């Protein structure tokens, strides 16, 4: 796996680089927003590890810039922020996971591997269908009524989970654990935000309301009869 580390602290950057190389990852590094954006845009990385506090800008802004460019490479945020709101904001801007500093190096590797598993899906050429919806997991493509629809990594992983559990109620806690492999305060609107993103993209091409909210329980993706 080829990984890009964007971190301005030399000691942290050296630690992460050493840990990843020890686990046989191919690693490039950057220490500024400018250099990080250039590398993220020019090479085919399978993972980006991104610090929030960079000398020439905000890592959150860089995360959003990367996503705005259509780059879907999974992003793991490193942050000293402990507040749930900041963690949720990272995910809302397109990050796939976050890890707070100081961090355990074994957890770092475990999170990278978990993100990689979710991104690759491990489902071969499996196709998931429900009414007008179709996901081809080998190509990681999503179509509604035959029209291809772009999804972010987080939207894709959420929709795959809902399709695998179609016609069944799934709770916010189950989504948090099985889609993002994290635990956070589900009273935040984070999951609701991503549900709304999926609803809007589906509505652009279909009149059927696939995703319903089940009050005090969770969500259900209903297939047409």
UniProtKB/TrEMBL annotation:
PROSITE patterns, sorted: OMPR_PHOB (PS51755), RESPONSE_REGULATORY (PS50110)
DNA-binding region: 125-223
SMART domains: REC (SM00448), Trans_reg_C (SM00862)
UniProt keyword Transit peptide, yes or no: no
4-aspartylphosphate: modified positions: 51
The OmpR/PhoB-type domain, residue ranges: 125-223
InterPro entries reported in the protein's UniProt record: CheY-like_superfamily (IPR011006), OmpR/PhoB-type_DNA-bd (IPR001867), Sig_transdc_resp-reg_receiver (IPR001789), WalR-like (IPR039420), WH-like_DNA-bd_sf (IPR036388)
Ranges for domain Response regulatory: 2-116
Entry protein name: Response regulator transcription factor
Organismal lineage: Bacteria, Pseudomonadati, Balneolota, Balneolia, Balneolales
